[in-house]
Predict the 3D structure of the following.
Amino acid sequence: MVESEWWVTLGYTGDNDKEEEDMGPGNPRPLRVVGRDVIGWIRDLRDKTLEMPRWRRLQLINDRLLLNVVEKKRFDTVAVLQGLRKHNLGPDVVMITILIDAWSRKGDFREAMRCFRSMHNLGIMPNQISYNAILAASARCKKPSTGLVFYEEMLDKGFIPTSHTYSSYIDCLTRLGRVEQAESILTDQPSAETVFAYTLVIAAYSRQLMIFDALRLLKRMYEKGLTPNEKTLTVLIRALGRAKEANLAIKLFNQELRLHPDRVLDDRLFAAMVAACAATGKLQEALFIYRIMKRKKLVASVTVHNGLIHACGQAGAVQRAFIIYRYMQSSTVTPNESTFIALANALLRSNIRDSRTHHILAELQRYSESPRSLAARKTRALQRLLQSSHPPILNQSLSKL
């Protein structure tokens, strides 16, 4: 516990005359907890909830106390759990499972582990859901080896893995690079065959650029009647782009549009498609993807626009790249460092030295604090271009675009 004063948002105050009003939903009030006075804080909670049924009291603690405290990250989990037990305010297995999940989502695996291990000292037996929560926490917080230990411990206690268990177990295996073992789980255990689990294995194959293994799993998904989600398609298309297989990416994208014409696709999927086209210099295909977004009334992100600029640079279409840049300036899309790097690449590729080069150089210098950064390297390259003795190829100013 911290020695200084801190505040926790609860659903009540210390004013007895306003107790009923403050306990109502939508009326959170601050309660002051000073130093190590956790016990006084818990006693106050007990007094405020004395007339409530036990289920309602625990629900209040779960929904409006412990999770809010987790958001503040200002208390010792085990100390509070022990205090709650001492004053007959719980905790139960549901409360601790909620805490495990909450701490893992905050990225604090140590506190999630402390919550799980405290169950033994509190006389609470972990159940299937508790093991699922700590296994998912291990995968989420990038502790896959610990997750495998919990998986074996769960099996030793006689629990039967569910689809959620298998998904977290597969996540841990793929993070450790054991992709073939993860795929064998999908093959041997029918309950493990979920879209999420397939996506994990496809993503693992994609990271290793094992494209045809990833496509084989995608085909199996369709055969099993499972519809790939946006994440499945995005990770696969990104891998196809890195492998310079833009034609396969386009074929997969068109197939998805044909099978699910009314499906609302994620912006990241379009960004991956544009990037795949840009990597192989397919400017017209990238612009076609952009027109599909407009037709579906989707707002293209800065990543999509950066991909288009990169595609223009690869194709030598510098003027079109700056038209896209001017459109970004006039719309709600704010150019970022990657935008100016893509424009710098387009200028360098075409050896252009005019007012546009000076403009991009000035913008890049704002991102060049570190001399080793990509922005700093492009800044130096543009400076060398401007100092060269060769006459400029183009002499159009940015204002004429």
